[in-house]
Amino acid sequence: MKRGITTVVIRFLAWAGASLLLSACGTNDQYADIRSFMTEVENEPSGQIAPLPEFEPYQPFTYGSANLRSPFEPPVVIPVLTEEQQVNSGVKPPVDHVKQYLERFNLASLVMVGSLEQAGATWALIEDADAGVHRVQIGDFMGTSWGQVKSINDTRIDIIEIVSDGGGGWLKRPRTIELKSVVE
């Protein structure tokens, strides 16, 4: 029986010690300052949140000068011809003309990047808007207005275009494509 009493006493003392330790932890509140701060914040009057300001809807910019002449090209001077001169001029676009590849590009988007001579023929190297390089020689067509290559030299290509005169007739207009300068 001694052994049974000893076990009971040991268990009782262990339980009493644990209870004492746990009660001691509860009396020392280490978070008392945080709880008091939270109570103060909760007791303060709540404010009003201002409503979002009214925003004007976005108005996209519409560029209206796409059909006008580029400010980087010289103005085209079209001579005023009398009706007799228009009838007698005989200038017309080619009728049975098969379009060449470079005729799909505007002349302003074509750039001369070089020239070469091969078997007595002079060729110009033209870079198109898609960054492709093409060979042209005298007589080839390029540009959207039936531009025909008339001469090629080391620094430029001379072209004659056939354009409308605005009165039902056609005019020849000289154009030039200069060699692209490389700046490094």
The CATH top-level class label of the largest domain: Mainly Beta
Tell me the span between the first and last alpha carbons. 108 Å
Number of strands: 7
Q: What is the residue-mean pLDDT, rounded to a whole number? A: 82
Task: Catalogue the unreliable spans.
Answer: none
Helix/strand order, N-terminal first: HHHEEEEEEE
Total number of distinct structural domains: 2
Strand-residue fraction?
15-25%
Percent helix, as a range, is: 10-25%
Number of DSSP helices?
Answer: 3
CATH topology of the largest domain: SH3 type barrels
Gyration radius (Cα, Å) is 46 Å
Indicate the topology:
Layout (H helix, E strand, L loop, with lengths): L1 H26 L4 H12 L39 H7 L21 E8 L2 E7 L5 E4 L4 E2 L4 E6 L3 E9 L5 E9 L6
Antiparallel strand pairs: 1-2, 2-3, 4-5, 5-6, 6-7
Note down, in words, how this protein is organized:
With 184 residues, the chain is α+β, with helices and mostly antiparallel strands. The protein folds into two domains: 2-43; 83-178, SH3 type barrels (Roll). The protein contains three helices and seven strands; from the N terminus they run H-H-H-E-E-E-E-E-E-E. The strands form two sheets. Strands 4-5-6-7 form a four-stranded antiparallel β-sheet, with no helix packed on it. A three-stranded antiparallel β-sheet has the order 1-2-3, with no helix packed on it. Strand 1 (111-118) and strand 2 (121-127) form a beta hairpin. The longest helix has 26 residues, at 2-27. The model has no long low-confidence stretch (mean pLDDT 82).
